[in-house]
Design brief:
Structural class of chain A: alpha+beta
Largest interface: A-B, 87 and 86 residues
CATH topology of the largest domain in chain A: Aminopeptidase
Oligomer: homodimer
Chain lengths: ~500, ~500
Amino acid sequence: MKLRSAFLAATTLIAVGSSAAFAKPGDPGREKVVAAIKADHDASIDRLRKWIALPTIANMNINHREGAEYMKQLVLDAGFQQAKIIDTAGVPGVFATLDAGAKDTLAIYFMYDVKHYDPAEWSSPPLEGKIVDRPGEGKALVGRGAVNQKGPETAFLTALRAFKTSGVKLPVNLVFVAEGEEEIASPNFSQVVTQPEVKAALEKAVGIIIPSASQSVDGQVTLLLGAKGAVELQLISSGEKWGRGPTKDVHSSLKANVDSPVWHLIKALNTLVSEDGQTPAIDGWYDNVKPLTARQKELIAADVAAGNEADDMKTLGIKHWYKDEDYLTASYRLAEQPTINIQGLVSGYMGPGGKTVLPGRAEAKIDLRLVPDMTKDEVISKLKAHLAKRGFGDIEVNVSGGYGPNQTDENSPLIKAEQATLADAKIPATLSARSAGSWPGVVFTGPPLHLPAGQFGAGRGGGAHAPDEWLLIESTNPKVVGFDGQAVLYADFLYEVARTAKKKN
Amino acid sequence: MKLRSAFLAATTLIAVGSSAAFAKPGDPGREKVVAAIKADHDASIDRLRKWIALPTIANMNINHREGAEYMKQLVLDAGFQQAKIIDTAGVPGVFATLDAGAKDTLAIYFMYDVKHYDPAEWSSPPLEGKIVDRPGEGKALVGRGAVNQKGPETAFLTALRAFKTSGVKLPVNLVFVAEGEEEIASPNFSQVVTQPEVKAALEKAVGIIIPSASQSVDGQVTLLLGAKGAVELQLISSGEKWGRGPTKDVHSSLKANVDSPVWHLIKALNTLVSEDGQTPAIDGWYDNVKPLTARQKELIAADVAAGNEADDMKTLGIKHWYKDEDYLTASYRLAEQPTINIQGLVSGYMGPGGKTVLPGRAEAKIDLRLVPDMTKDEVISKLKAHLAKRGFGDIEVNVSGGYGPNQTDENSPLIKAEQATLADAKIPATLSARSAGSWPGVVFTGPPLHLPAGQFGAGRGGGAHAPDEWLLIESTNPKVVGFDGQAVLYADFLYEVARTAKKKN
């Protein structure tokens, strides 16, 4: 997941009670469900390990169909009454429903793909799911997808299985959608959710969550109310498309009378941002940018007050924020400002020293971060128009993925139910106004669905996209729950969604 | 060798006579020398093959000392009375002298290093020196260094050996200097030629040549009167040196409040050239640029008149010269204009698609081409001052090699002797005003030596810096000479140098 809840810090810590203390009077069958979760522990971990052993990697064409079939079977086994694979132009999606005869419906979003990995960098095989000791934390399972996102997703399915095996009626109906391209910015996921049948099912939901395990070492959970959008693209200048300069690399002595596609790209890039390399300068870029609200600033200020600027800077390897702004101003900017980032440059000779070539091609890898109310289509067309107007219309804009920003109302029943569930579990929670990182929530929060959406869960893990990715299975840290606690929290959340929706009705 | 005598074409072809017809009356012992060259043929090719088997590759730290020792032994075997290795800050040079008791002295420059190679791209092992058929041309030896430059150099040494073995007195004294870093732009060669002993010996010479085999398929040889200088450098922007931005790659969502070393580099590069990406815009860059003389334009116009624009464009993969200039204007520009070329760009993520990083480092690989009277030191200090003045003083200017331009008077005895030798051999020759490519001739043509200098030789080869580099050993093309013919031409050149110098005196 491309989630980064930047610079959020724990609020005053409240002791976390045992999972048995979560229950509210009147949650029918909860004790049976909790017992079933505990009885299912070993089998659950085994299911997680088997799922990890089948990695779907979107951009490497690994296990696209197999991953979708596996995902479908997992939800059927967990109690969904129907599940089907939804083909897209890319990796297939999965759609499933569980009608519990309840009044309200909750939607669930899963990603079944994982980031690629290099086994040489891991201390145990990335597909093995080895259990290791984490000093001061407990026992953790190590594997690609452990926390991002198969681990928390497995905990959610374990909760559903517990209802099923203990014969307890689910408090809410469920609609399930999954994709296998989250790690490449969900290029085709809207094709899944706009299928008439899928859309009709989702429209009934009070909101949608993706399971996550994001407790800090102090036990704190951050609830994201929004995230910037992200569009990834490559700008490619080539002699072939330009019709000037060489179609291949030629000897560099020819620079005097042969045009250079590399300089052409540099000149184009130069127009995209302000002189200090920071502020987007594309025509009309700010037309739809909304400033932060007073409430969003209040939430950010609360985070900043509890944060540690020196630690943040040290982690990032920086000495100054942009323009030497203070921590609060820099944090406002992080949430508020759209960005144009260069991820990488590729052209000509890239080995040690030099080589006398005039390259026929140059590429800049770019990501655009979008804030409300910018949209993906808007920024791509504005970028293209900007380039064309300045004589760079030949430069290819190769969009490899992306989506707009998302924002969810903190007063929506979904967020209220999340807060209530965590409060009952004595897990401290803060609201994040907006993550500078991105996730494809706009598929749900934007038109036509307009659903509240966000990640949700307890438990703890780390190493997403990195070697030795892990999820805490048995926690010795009283502030953090282990795998069973994660599943219990999801069971309690289902009760709470029904309760909150009832209040609202 | 970084030689490119761009856009030169054959003048009206004159039939090439047999090598026996080269002689002028009064060249004492010439027939014995020619016979000795022919008798030495197989042994000469064997020496070339053995030399090729010991590649010196400057930037890969391969055979630095071994190559110098081998070079020294080769010249001692060819008749030099003393030879010594001259240590430098890099790969060692070699200095040798041969006092024939003659009135005049000729200097010889060798490179004993070769370009690196990938055996997988070759049709026979690059160090084997296999003899292969070239349809329509004859038998060629394939190996790294075959034409660039061990083949022609071996032919020159074969000529010297022939004088020695046949007991014929050399018509001129010889001074020999060699380097093992030509392929990385001779960063330390001036340390060799400015050694007092070396300098004193070189000062006696009428001029200096590097052996070359550059006949076209029509038999034509081009005599370079000058070449642009070249400086290779890498511009490196990093969070570490800048003191802003990250010291490593961080998540790209942070672009809003973290400065980007990549954008910093793009903004710096943007200032180096005009808006169309072509004309250098560094402060004071043109202060010492001399326009072409009427004579230089005349020589270029003659080349262009005999050239084929469509073929040149096809070879380069271009459809237009810069600014849609005509062939002649573009050719003037090629010779006259200094350039700033980007050889390559390196930053952040460079694989397929994208990756959400904000890189901590970005590098542009640059070469500068210099025309008279620009100097290497001048352009480096102007580049640094230009960057510093605009707030880019933190960007590292890592100079990996280079030298200034060179120019030799077409009326010098060296060029006159070259022309006379070729005319006697009925090999058509044209004068090139200036190559846009570069070679370190300025070490000789510049202060303190001010020697006429250039490549010289007959014979034919190709594939310099590329796979399957070759040198024609036995020519079936009557317009082109083979290996023995190359050696005979060098013998005749030695006679001619003495004769021309005598006329001059």
